[in-house]
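Can anyone check this?
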Amino acid sequence: MTKIIESLIQAKAAQAHPLLKRIYTKTDLYKQCAHELQEDIERLESDHLALLFAKYASITGRHPSEYKTRLINCDNGNIALCGIRFRGMDISQPFVTVTTTLKPLSVNSINILVDNISKAFHAFKPQYAQFYIPSYLDIEPANFSSAHWDNRILAKSLYTLAENAVQDIACPAHTKCELVSANSLTFYNQYEMAYNKLLDEFPQHAVMMELKPIEDMRTWVAQGFVNLLCVNDKLAGVIIVEPDNSLGMTGFYIIENIIFSEYREQGLGKWMQQAMIYQLVNNQSRQSKRQKTDMLFGTIHFDNTSAIQCAKSIGRGDIGGYLWVATGIE
């Protein structure tokens, strides 16, 4: 088992996006991949974790041991680390996530894996198998009978982004822009109303983004992660960025990034991200925590084209996304 796990970690590092290979040493990339896989590796044998999962997503007739992560062996010599999951912890929406594979993914290997996953997890009747596809692979939903993209990952070196931000951080004409740290929750009601208004205008955004709960927001405010965009002294947007170590990267993860409806299409989304980048690089209290290899990264739904375009406009690049392939199980 140990040798297989070691090989899977090495394979994940080897399959990383070229951007990450340029930023990190082989040793650091291996460590980050091991960190990313740590929870799923623990789920392989932990009866305790399986029992907790079974309690939260209880399905009649399913034993807790069935909730463990599994190693799926395919006839083509591929091995995949896979686990049953439920979207939003809704037991009516089961899927299997493929955390990593021994061999690089291809259309053929994905089809083989979906067939094996369907058999291994048939008792849960998973509707989809989820794969992370690095952007350098020529794999698209059209290659399968039923598949679609979900979130994309957009990332770039924080210091590279900072160089661009310094050159292009001017506020849009006829406005006074400020990005200020939130020190209380007085903004939350406006944030909630802005979120609901956005959903009224674009109902499809319900699957692309979520309202951040007030309890989570309270924690982020206390940690200094919440910044408010003020335009002409009025609240116009919210951006939340926290130190993170996930998705094979270290640096800062964008948790929330919303411009209120009346301020959209004015270039303020780009300005807010650039101002946040400038703060991250120049904030003296955070300098001791930063490294030259820090990235700014986050996930954006594939259909949220305006948010993707905004992220790209500041220099973040699409390094991959999550492909959902239907299992065909009824």
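Reply from J.R.: I decoded it. Residues 11 and 102 are 6 Å apart (CA to CA).
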